[in-house]
């Protein structure tokens, strides 16, 4: 067996299941704020396209997807990020089966296990796939604190020069999971310059980019920042996007990777061997979803309403800033995060994720400790009832 498999850590939900294994749930309906699975309705345009194109399964699909699919993705990226040069659908974008597999696979493609640069930078707290990708590529994860001041964006300036020099690739999560914070143009520029100096590939996980608060406006992305700097070839830059959160299609398994044409070309070769092409009906549904913004705007309104009501309900017990993007709350708790998680099940049957399960302890500090991740994915009424139960619990226990 590959010995690197032993380095993989239990997934946060495995740890959560073992934390709750002996806990008897309160006798009220379960409300889940734990899994980041969108529960709003999938768009009709995508579902119809899926059904109308079922016969596509009679053919093997090419790994790079159909021209029509890549064109729909390139058009969306160019418009959404106001790119000065259009994304080239032949060379600068490819479909992937959700960003999860692609975030893992890119590490296997880009990282050089013979190099004496041993590090892959990644945020903490983080999406655990980044860590597994580094381990299975034979490299070492190096965490940077992604909670910033008051839960703001990560301070990349705090990363020492020696770390940049030993690093081959950096994962960004923008907007962040779980913080919902977003990087400024200035922060992106500094990062792109550093990546240029040290020849580091930037992997920007932007799967929450379309779930932003209307009041905060659309966050900028890596390609937009690069384009504004005149790096229209997106040298060393890759952006990862998904229909899972944007279009409430987590089961479709559809996303894209766009940016540096040379890396995309190599990634396509890797993927040809990996054998992970996208099913033709999925491609048709994806074209419909990338080409429609109406459902995306409606989706944002639903989240905006939930944030307004839930933060008002929790205001007496938690100090909460509404994040600019994403669908999580990441409050600091007045109690231990594991105790809170167990009690919320046993006393109120609300499922949450302990913050410490989404981060690693570095220099004696786990940035998720005594925080919880609350995913506002359930319908509005359920989110409000969950918030009332959390408020009641905290009022009673603090
Ligand atoms: C930060 C982050 N990146 C990537 C993903 C993967 O999304 P998908 O594979 O559905 O595109 C998730 C899913 O929850 C996520 O939270």
Can you walk through the features of this model?
With 398 residues, the chain is an alpha/beta fold. It has 2 domains: 3-41 and 295-397, Aspartate Aminotransferase, domain 1; 46-292, Aspartate Aminotransferase, domain 2 (3-Layer(aba) Sandwich), CATH 3.40.640.10. The chain is 39% helix and 13% strand. The chain has 14 helices and 12 strands. The chain has helices at residues 12-19, 44-52, 67-80, 99-110, 129-136, 161-165, 185-198, 222-228, 243-246, 261-274, 280-290, 294-314, 337-348, 380-397; strands at 31-32, 93-96, 119-124, 140-145, 167-173, 201-205, 237-242, 255-259, 328-329, 350-351, 353-354, 372-375. Strands 2-8-7-6-5-3-4 form a 7-stranded mixed sheet, with helices on both faces. Helix 2 (44-52) packs antiparallel against helix 11 and helix 3 (67-80) runs parallel beside helix 11. The radius of gyration is 21 Å and the shape is globular. The mean pLDDT is 95.
Helix proportion of residues, in percent? 25-40%
List of distinct ligands in this structure? pyridoxal-5'-phosphate
The largest beta-sheet arranges its strands as: 2-8-7-6-5-3-4
User: Please, what is the CATH homologous superfamily of the largest domain?
Assistant: Type I PLP-dependent aspartate aminotransferase-like (Major domain)
Shape: globular
The CATH topology of the largest domain is given as Aspartate Aminotransferase, domain 2
Q: Which second-level CATH architecture of the largest domain applies?
A: 3-Layer(aba) Sandwich
What string gives the helices and strands in order?
HEHHEHEHEHEHEHEHEHHHEHEEEH
Head-to-tail CA distance between termini: 50 Å
What structural category arises from helix and sheet content?
Answer: alpha/beta
> Which blocks of ≥5 consecutive residues have pLDDT under 50?
none
Number of domains as seen in the coordinates: 2
> pLDDT average, as an integer?
95
Strand content: 5-15%
Number of helices in the DSSP assignment: 14
């Amino acid at each position: 067996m590959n010995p690197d498999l032993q380095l993989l850590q239990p997934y946060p939900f495995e740890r959560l299941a073992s934390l709750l294994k002996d806990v008897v749930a309160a006798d009220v309906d379960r409300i889940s704020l734990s899994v980041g699975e969108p529960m709003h309705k999938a768009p009709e345009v995508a579902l119809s396209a899926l059904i109308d194109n079922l016969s596509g399964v009679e053919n093997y699909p090419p790994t790079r997807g159909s021209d029509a699919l890549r064109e729909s993705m390139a058009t969306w990226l160019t418009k959404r990020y106001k790119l000065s040069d259009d994304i080239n659908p032949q060379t600068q974008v490819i479909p992937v089966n959700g960003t999860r597999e692609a975030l893992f696979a890119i590490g296997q493609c880009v990282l050089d296990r013979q190099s004496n640069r041993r590090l892959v930078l990644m945020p903490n707290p983080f999406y655990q796939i980044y860590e597994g990708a580094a381990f299975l590529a034979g490299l070492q994860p190096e965490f940077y604190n992604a909670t910033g001041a008051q839960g703001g964006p990560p301070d990349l300036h705090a990363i020492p020069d020696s770390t940049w020099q030993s690093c081959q690739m950096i994962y960004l999560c923008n907007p962040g999971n779980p913080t919902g914070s977003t990087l400024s143009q200035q922060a992106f520029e500094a990062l792109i310059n550093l990546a240029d100096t040290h020849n580091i590939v930037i992997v920007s996980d932007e799967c929450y980019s379309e779930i932003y608060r209307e009041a905060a406006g659309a966050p900028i992305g890596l390609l937009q920042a690069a384009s504004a700097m005149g790096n229209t070839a997106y040298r060393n830059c890759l952006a990862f996007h998904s229909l899972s959160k944007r279009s409430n299609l987590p089961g479709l398994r559809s996303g894209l990777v766009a940016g540096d044409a040379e890396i995309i070309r190599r990634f396509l070769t890797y993927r040809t061997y990996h054998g992970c092409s996208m099913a033709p009906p999925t491609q048709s549904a994806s074209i419909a979803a990338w080409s429609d913004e109406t459902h995306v705007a409606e989706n944002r309104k639903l989240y905006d309403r939930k944030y307004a009501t839930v933060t008002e309900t929790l205001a007496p017990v938690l100090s909460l800033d509404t994040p600019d993007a994403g669908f999580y709350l990441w409050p600091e708790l007045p109690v231990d995060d594991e105790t809170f998680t167990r009690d919320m099940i046993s006393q109120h049957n609300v499922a949450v994720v302990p913050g410490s399960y989404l981060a690693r302890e570095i220099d004696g500090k786990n940035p998720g400790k005594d925080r919880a991740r609350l995913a506002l994915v359930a319908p509005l009424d359920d989110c409000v009832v969950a918030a009332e139960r959390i408020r009641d619990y905290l009022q009673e226990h603090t």
